[in-house]
Design brief:
heterodimer, A: about 300 residues, mainly alpha, 2 domains, two-stranded antiparallel ribbon, 4 strands, globular, B: about 325 residues, 13 helices, 2 strands, about 0% strand
Chain lengths: ~300, ~325
């Protein structure tokens, strides 16, 4: 059997693949956080809850209405995005101009409430969500078997990340967004409806979290705890990458996912803290984060 | 001239009133165990000290730590281990807990003060989660079981802490000493520098204060006092578990402080009493605590950001100023 650093190559690549999958979710979620932060200057603590909400909406659509994975891929981000817009209109929009920490605390309360509601009704155990038939099975890549669904998740997350990046960097709407980030008053003076733009941005960020949730449903179990488990890791990713750059958030997400996978191969005990350790090292060497501009 | 005298009289009256309220509060706490279940009271006192320690950082230095469970729960583990496994007397175990929490605070603070605001919160949260994973895996914490059956023992070899009233008054003394220490810190020249950092960090730097050292010192003090609360809680409840190091616990202490009033002396105590009381009431009703605390969190942020005590103080001040009839524009 072929080995690499004394470890069977299958196991090595298998862990690397798991790392890549986790990295895909870190990238999608930190991307959403960066998009929201860019416009609203708040950290969306409810991002994990919205990710969990995405998985649960997909699950409930399937169980109660028989609506399968593919329609859910459209419906779930819409539903979670609308929920996000309602949250922004009713809650967050009243907190602008205050210390941004109040936004963090508000979304923290929201996350607790949402998680509490789902824990109350669905318990803390996971509910299975089966892989859609089209993506069942696995492909022999010659050196390892790749489950089709996992391959799809990697491709889909790349598409989502690239699409969001293009939307913000290359379209007219994106240029409004970036301009409003720099100087909201001036952009409003030009006749752009900035409050609407802010609402849409929060909706977009929430929709990204919801989409990540439905993509994650067949891989991890659908559980009320899935959001709070991942959000803290994503926060560490965001500290490492710095929130200033969309591309930085995406790249950092993938790289840290892979780093976590590699650690699982060589020193499994440290695999769930490696991202935090990397965060501490980055804070020592480059306190503003790898892609950060602000100090 | 007459104006100033009048204002001085009023200021003296209001400080008399404050002193009176403090004395009444202490008398109530002294009499309370004869009317209310002492365990619940002790839980309130431990969390009240925890919230006051947290408020030293958030209210008086302007730093929002999302990782204070590390110091509270960590100290509980150190104290429980020392008392149960090494057979230390309770006071030594508590001191070890405080020292351990201060050390953890030094390490976490060292990293966290490199960033400000939102990043500071996220870094403390991430480092606290790291400590949580450490506690899950380290053998001495016994994982999910926690450290159970910690003996209360004899305080200074004399006072039997198994007597309900003995332990209650011991906890009360620790609580009062802790709050007094925080009051002294806040009203010292050191505390004034902390407040100036909260108000305007750049100006504090330009005045020549080494802001980083002050922040770190405040972080360590806050961690040590949070540790004191956690260690005492371990002696009272005779166990230390993972619950106390989770991020939910860090969130809970934020809620207590926010609900009572950030940056007020009494606010965190009131907030802690209310939250612990509410949890106690909900525990029997079957209604999930998480939904309630989350909803209160949102309501506080939306409706009364100054907290209960903060709002009362603000109204009181406003009324007094209206009453004295002079426009105060400071």
């Amino acid at each position: 059997m072929t080995t690499i650093f004394g470890i069977p190559i299958q196991a090595f690549l298998g862990q690397l693949l798991i790392g890549l999958i986790n990295g895909s979710f870190y990238a999608m979620l930190s991307l959403g956080l960066a998009v929201i932060f860019g416009m609203l200057r708040i950290i969306n603590f409810a991002h994990g809850a919205q990710y969990m909400l995405g998985a649960f909406v997909g699950y409930l659509l399937l169980v109660n209405l028989g609506i399968g994975y593919w329609p859910a891929l459209i419906l779930v981000p819409l539903a979670v995005g609308l929920f996000g817009m309602a949250v922004e209109r009713l809650g967050l929009s009243r907190l602008y101009g205050l210390d941004p920490l109040y936004g963090l605390l508000f979304t923290f309360g929201l996350a607790q409430t949402v998680e509490g509601i789902f824990r109350y009704y669905y318990g803390v155990s996971g509910n299975p969500y089966s892989v859609p038939p089209l993506l069942a099975g696995s492909t022999n890549l010659g050196f390892m078997f790749l489950p089709n669904y996992r391959g799809w998740v990697v491709v889909a997350s790349l598409i989502v990340c690239l699409g969001t990046w293009l939307l913000i960097e290359k379209t007219r709407l994106g240029s409004y967004l970036r301009a409003a980030t720099e100087n909201p008053h001036l952009v409003q003076a030009f006749g752009v409806n900035v409050p609407l733009l802010v609402t849409l941005t929060y909706g977009l960020g929430s929709a990204l979290a919801g989409l990540a949730g439905i993509l994650a449903a067949p891989i991890y179990q659908v559980s009320p705890l899935m959001g709070s488990d991942i959000i803290i890791v994503v926060f560490a990713v965001v500290v490492v990458g710095g929130l200033g750059s969309i591309l930085g958030a995406i790249v950092t997400g993938y790289v840290l996912g892979l780093a976590e996978g590699l650690t699982k191969v060589f020193y499994p005990e440290a695999s769930n803290i490696v991202i935090f350790v990397i965060m501490a090292i980055v804070l020592l060497l480059r306190p503003a984060g790898l892609f950060g501009r602000d100090a | 001239m007459a104006e100033t005298t009048l204002r001085n009289t009023r200021a003296r009256m209001s400080s008399r009133l404050e002193q009176g309220l403090v004395v009444i509060g202490i008398l109530v706490l002294l009499a309370a165990p004869f009317f209310v279940y002492p365990i619940l009271l002790m839980k309130m006192l431990c969390f009240a000290l925890f919230a006051c320690a947290f408020n030293l950082l958030l209210g008086y230095t302007g730093l929002l730590s999302f990782g204070h469970a590390t110091f509270f729960g960590g100290a509980a583990y150190f104290c429980a281990h020392a008392v149960k496994v090494w057979g230390w007397p309770p006071e030594a175990g508590i001191l070890l807990g405080v020292a351990g929490a201060a050390t953890l605070g030094l390490v976490m603070g060292f990293f966290a003060i490199r960033r400000q605001g939102i990043y500071f919160a996220m870094i403390t949260l991430a480092l606290a989660q790291m400590f949580y994973f450490f506690c899950v895996q380290a053998p001495f914490t016994h994982g999910e079981d926690g450290i159970q059956g910690v003996p209360r023992g004899l305080l200074f070899g004399l006072l039997d802490l198994n007597q309900p009233l003995n332990i209650y008054y011991f906890v009360l003394v620790v609580f009062l000493l802790g709050v007094f220490a925080i009051w002294r810190i806040v009203n010292s020249p050191f505390g004034m520098v902390l407040r100036s950092i909260r108000e305007n960090e750049n100006r504090a730097v330009s005045l020549g204060y080494s802001v980083a050292n002050y922040k770190l010192a405040a972080f360590v003090m806050s961690a040590a006092l949070a540790g004191l609360a956690g260690a005492v809680k371990a002696i009272v409840f005779q166990f230390a578990t993972l619950t106390d190091v989770t991020w939910q616990m860090s969130g809970e202490v934020i809620l207590m402080t926010l609900l009572g009033g950030i940056g007020t002396m009494v606010g965190p105590i009131v907030g802690a009493g209310l939250v612990v009381g509410l949890e106690n009431a909900l525990a029997t009703s079957g209604f999930p605590v998480m939904i309630a605390t989350g909803a209160i969190f949102m309501a506080c942020v939306m409706l009364f950001r100054r907290g209960i005590v903060g709002e009362i103080q603000a109204r009181w001040t406003a009324r007094r100023e209206r009453g004295s009839g002079n426009e105060v524009n400071v």
